[in-house]
């Protein structure tokens, strides 16, 4: 019996070490790839004049689709911000997803809207459309508002996709702030590729908490004052600048953030649009599109733009952060298990051999492994058998690895887009990186485990946050907690 | 936020576990507990060092019984005697600590340097802008002395300002700026960039010489219009369009790479912006490079080269579907009845192609188990798109003679909603005859078609 436990101990401990080495190694490799990829991107675009797209009749047409649910407080500014994007052939489709507040009333009044009689094909099934509005004012002729019954974010996006007649659809969270040239910058990679079809592109999501926003534009970038959003700045920087850039290069991206992405509309329609029965519809759509392209034996790519194009507010309280993260976990699991056929399937090339297995092991399984490790450690601690000195040595290695990686991410940001201009902010970021493993990561782990648990018991709700943003009650609660800092649901970081 | 007792307890426990868990990788390595037999370092006191060994005698064997050993000697001894696993961890830890320190310093210094440089550049930029404005618009100022232009970085700031102004000015002011650029030998800086080995510097150089009309390196730049690096290629092509006086698009003759949409947009922009007139794009319609044919077709469409209609009509039946699509689009702005029969013929051909694709797909689908993705093949997209573009191109020139054709398009159940709607709208533009046809169609229309007809009539 003792021998059995010794053998078990051996396998558990060595297994954990091996997985850890792989994880550390993968992060270092991804960081390396990202660095090369970003350097190339920055060099390539340092002298580019995006304005050529502004007036060109050859530029592709884009529909910006923004679902809105109970956004009455900010919807007017949000629409104004979207309407003032720099692009020639584009339209803004706001899909009011059965808001129960005064969203529709305010929009109709502010933009002088009237119902129009438009007939178009419902290629993807959605909840019933109540009416379609356009403005009487020609200055707003790019604006279309679809008023429909509540069906969730995915359903709203499908309704917008059905209405769109443009080549590309750009999906945006209505309360995200896009930089004026966002569409120009996003469209360019679609035009450059000749050998492979670009089916989707994602942009970096930056954190707008504490930033100064005037008339739907970021006028001053500031590091969040509160710890939770601030630590997410690091998390997002690491994820976007050090992870996705590399995955883009390796053509293994499985996720385009729901907060801002651009898609080839025809492919979205071919695969049937967003799945309305999932909580992680944004990831699942990309996986499905990629799978579809592979099955059609078409050469394709999903790309990622490192420019800070989209600014958004992130959860400032643990409560909302927890809901967001356990939903992200469930979303990951849905996509990974629904498309398990991809797992190490050479037929799907980088998707099957790299992207899916990586997400499976390092995004889904790693927190579970970590949790098992904790339980295991508790047991041996209770039994009084751990080798404490070795434990502390290992702990120091892991801690400093984490902090070093975050510092590399800060350096990436510094050398590339350096949006945080004040010296003080950089120093704060560096110190935040030191605190993150101690005061932030345990909660993220906990939320992830909770997400796993909820997935296995079959919970498929967004919680009380609805599909985008959060309910007024929560908003109020959070505002009470965090003064002026608002929280919203965002595209996933991984 | 109100924390309940349970939450506080949980938080405390979580923070405690952090001592052994986390982080970033979400890995569990941190909690790896440890093998009894492994040795670990504790450097602080000799007592602790003794703890690392199984027995005092073992420690004495390893360390020697020498109290006079310095702490560094002891560390060294312990390191040498430690198991491989510990050695590896120690090396990693040392590397991490050093790199953390270096990173910290680099980030702070970089920020400091960058801030200072940015401020200085802004001041200089402002100064140069004002001086250039004075130079341009104050007739009394014949020459201008710029501060710090001996420095290469400052000269680059000046070049950028000159380029920016030059791109926004025409006529005398623009040539005055160009003269200044040459007088100050700034063109030599640009040429240096052109001949630089690094592709991104070279590309910048191409931009500068093109903007400032420096023709000294034309032959050299021309050789890059067919470079394998697409970034240099597009810049070289744009530069040649601007700089080549006789044949701005001559490089298309020898282009072996596919022209991307981005390249086409840039070339077109240069042609329009600099009002470069190309008499005919017809020679490139015979190119072996399909992307060049497509470019020529697009230019014919945008510049409305009516004289090329006969040749474009031939391309409607090209083997490559993208070219058929581009040719169809190219005819739309011509608004001529000359091509109506060919377009109708092409419509018929594309219909056959589409039916064949759909039939093949259904055949394949028979044996397929129902999968997660029910979507149809991508192959039908182009024939559908071409058929839509045919109807669009017919729109401006449609007449009562085309009523039967349009009625067939509308009745065809394989046709997309979009194409049928367009055909219905075209009927309404044909006056009474079109309306009569609408009424005729209503008689045997299914629900979808009826709704479409009602909608078209309402919006008439």
Summarize it.
Chain A is an alpha/beta fold.
Classification by helices and strands of chain B: mainly alpha
Uncertain runs of chain A are 464-491
Radius of gyration of chain A: 23 Å
The quaternary structure here is heterodimer
Question: Explain this structure to me?
Answer:
The complex is a heterodimer of chains A (494) and B (460). Chain A has helices spanning 2-45, 51-55, 75-83, 103-110, 153-163, 182-192, 227-249, 265-270, 281-295, 318-338, 349-382, 388-415, 423-439, 441-457, 472-482; strands at 62-68, 90-97, 113-115, 129-135, 143-148, 168-172, 177-178, 197-207, 212-214, 217-220, 260-264, 300-312. Chain A starts with a helix and ends in a 12-residue tail after the last helix. In chain A, the strands form two sheets. A ten-stranded mixed sheet of chain A has the order 3-4-5-2-1-6-11-8-12-7, with helices on both faces. Chain A has 15 helices and twelve strands. In chain A, helix 7 (227-249) packs across helix 13. Chain A is globular. Chain A has one domain (1-47, 193-494). With 494 residues, chain A is an alpha/beta fold. In chain A, strand 9 (212-214) and strand 10 form a beta hairpin. Among the domains of chain B are: 1-30, no CATH class; 31-110, no CATH class; 402-460. Chain B has 460 residues and is mostly helical. Chain B has helices at residues 5-18, 46-51, 56-63, 71-81, 84-137, 152-167, 171-183, 186-194, 199-212, 218-222, 230-243, 261-273, 290-302, 309-315, 321-331, 340-367, 381-394, 403-411, 417-428, 431-443, 447-458. Chain B is extended and about 105 Å long. Helix content of chain B is 64%, strand content 0%. Mean pLDDT of chain B is 83; it is low at 5-50 and 370-375. Chains A and B meet through helix 1, helix 2, helix 6, helix 8 and helix 9 of A and helix 1, helix 5, helix 9, helix 11 and helix 12 of B.
